Amino acid sequence: MTSFSDEELLARFRDPEGNNRHYAFNLLVQKYQQKIYAHVRRMVIDHDDANDLVQNTFVKIWHHLDNFREDSQLFTWMYRIATNECLAFLKQKKKRFFLPIADVEAELNRKLEQNTYFDSNKLELKLQQAILSLPEKQRLVFHLRYYDNMKYEEMSTILETSVGALKASYHHAVAKVEKYIKGD
Amino acid sequence: MNMNQHPEHTDDELKDAPILRQLRQTAAFNAPEDYFQTLPSAIQDRISSRKSILSLFKVKPILAGLAIAGCLVLGILYINRPAQEQQFTETTTITTDDLIESGYYLELEEQLIAESVYNDDATPEESIDETEMENYLLEASDETTLINEL
User: What ipTM was predicted for this assembly?
Assistant: First the structure.
């Protein structure tokens, strides 16, 4: 399959004369679905929840793509939508069941251990548990840097936090996770 | 499908985390078989179904407005019509006996009472001819009364 650049996909999507909207959008989904899914899945653990949130994310992208101002990378913008969906989902979970943060984390931990689509050895399981013990925003920082190797400037756009704060946050996250795995 | 293929990472940040460096290449979360083949069409379905729901919400306020207007019109008609019919019904059911019992007849005009009497079912007597009427008046009245009447 031919790979189109983000600019080409945007141009096809916004073309007022052509009937390329759905086709261009499909190409966009195919290009980024795995990355978006991975990002969401790491946050919410459960595949069914992740599937729902990924679809919601792309539906929002469909509805707002015309208004995308191109002041950041397209993928950064999409990532931001996905991140907000995850945070809203976790917040709603707490509110709906009147759960304190610790209980939501415990539930995510339980899902991790019971998950059919989690291919893990003991060490990997411990790593994911360590990451779950981090505060939500720090967890996000860790995911974006450790797994996606995202630049701090892009992260700053997504999380609306300064680069310096993000670097510090990641540094502390690495130390906490390493300590947790070692069982200190 | 393996979701966790780690891209190139800055080792500098992990220099004090050997376990994290080691785990960079290992898999974790997997998606079901064929998930990414079917995801684009699932998303398109969701977009289409959301369009239908949104258009329904646009129609709903119009329907609600029409329903309210219809209820108001029916309400006004209902309040007005039945009350007028009732008035007529009540007056036609009053009998002569009812009238006498109530004492209301004392307030009525003579003409109205006479009409009521003539409307009764009793068979009217034969009409009196003029000669008989004349004779009756002559016998019943004295001369003075007759002159005054003329």
Answer: 0.82
